[in-house]
Structures are given as C-alpha cells and as structure tokens.
Amino acid sequence: MRLFIDTGSVAEVRELAAWGVLSGATTNPSLLAREDGDPGEAIRRICEAVDGPVSAEVVSEDRETMVLQGRALCGLHEHVTVKVPFGAEGLAATARLAAEGIDVNVTLVFSAAQALLAARAGARYVSCFLGRLDDVAVDSEAVLIEIVHALRSEEAAEVLAASIRTPGHVVTAARLGCPVATVPASVLRQMLVHPLTASGIARFEADWASRPELARWLDELTPRPRLAVAAR
Ligand code: G3P
C-alpha cells in the first residue's frame, strides 16, 4: 500500500518525506485553511517535496466552476491531482476533467454505491473516509471492505483510504487491499513508536557500552565525514 501524507503543511511534508515512505500527498480546504501564506505556493512546495501526486481540491457547488478551478489547480504543478467532492455536480466535473486527461481524486465518499459512481465517472482515486464513519458509529472497516470489493474490477480507479485517525486505520486499509492511504503526520509519527523498539535500542547501547573496545573498533572502522575546506 502506498502512503500519502494528508496535510497542508509544507514543513510536515518535508519532515516525513525524509523518511522515504511517502508516495504522494493530499490537501483539502480545511487543511490549507490552517496554514498561513499563499495556498498556491504551499501546494507547489508540497509537490516539490514529495515525489508523487498531490491532491488540491476545488471549492464550488457547480460543475462548470469545478472544471475551471480544476484546470487552474493543475496549472500549479505537474504533480497536482484535482480533488472533487462527491455529488452529481462533482461526478459531472470529474467526467469532464478525466476526459481532458486530468487525474481526479473524488472525495467525501462514504459508501460502495458512491464509490462505484465515482469510478465510473473516471476518478483516478476514490477517497473513502474512515474516521468520519466511525464518528457516526458506522463500522468503517465493513464499509471499506465493500468498497474495495466493489471497485476490484475498476481498473482506472484506486481506493484511497482517507480520514485516517489511528495507526489501526492504516493497517486495516493495507490488510483490506487498499492501494493507497493518506495519513496525517500525527498518525505517521504514532506509527513509529513501540516500547519494545525503544527498550531494545537502549539494551543494545548498554551492552555495547560495556565493552569500550568495541566502540573504538567501530569508530576506527568508520571513515570521518570530510570537513568542508574553508575557502582561501
Ligand atoms: O483527506 C481527508 C481528510 O483530511 C479528512 O480527515 O480527520 O477531517 O475526517 P478528517
């Protein structure tokens, strides 16, 4: 499963991209509204920081404006994928944009029925929200199973697990065969942590420290980084 980062923060993308685990990013109006500065600049910088598709969302309730905004968002960077909210207007806009060769991420999808329509309209990604289903006591795992199965014959559309709130959501999405999950930085950081890893590192370091000659051996083995020669 490919991991995208779900954020409007350039700093978060740069921090997590350094781990080598990201294949793209998603933004949305709420995430961008949390950030200072020019949203177009933020989207461009996120595209430069992560080597993969970056979703930027239209904000309109009519298909014509969605299409115009989508074309404009594409102009920000070659990596931009246009995010379109699900609905009749969004489906019509998706069909138009897809016909122009523009990748569309249809978002705010909460059922297999919606996911099928999004795929048929030409969506490249179908963003299925897990956290918000759980928020209203709907079993997000059961819905995701239905969506993954319903779209298995849709060659062009990929199920994108979104509204991820816990490492458990990420693992469930992978286990159910989602090709992509978009994950907030906070959850990616949670995925790092396990007490046995921390105690294991501490034990390796303590045992190593008990034999100082081993540390000397490794230091001697390790070439020193070349110091920059001061300009004369
Ligand atoms: O990509 C969609 C995601 O940002 C929504 O997450 O936590 O607001 O449901 P959340």
- What is the 3D shape? globular
| Main sheet attributes: strand count, strand direction, barrel closure | 8 strands, parallel, barrel
| Arithmetic mean of pLDDT | 96
Count of beta strands = 8
Tell me what the CATH architecture is: Alpha-Beta Barrel
Class in CATH? Alpha Beta
Rg estimate, integer Å: 22 Å
Ligand names:
SN-glycerol-3-phosphate
What is the fold named in CATH at topology level? TIM Barrel
Oligomer: single chain
Please, what is the CATH homologous superfamily?
A: Aldolase class I
Number of helices: 12
DSSP helix fraction: 40-55%
Along the chain, the helix and strand elements come as EHEHHEHEHEHEHHEHEHHH
Roughly how many Å apart are the termini? 51 Å
Which strand-content bin applies to the residues? 15-25%
Low-confidence stretches: none
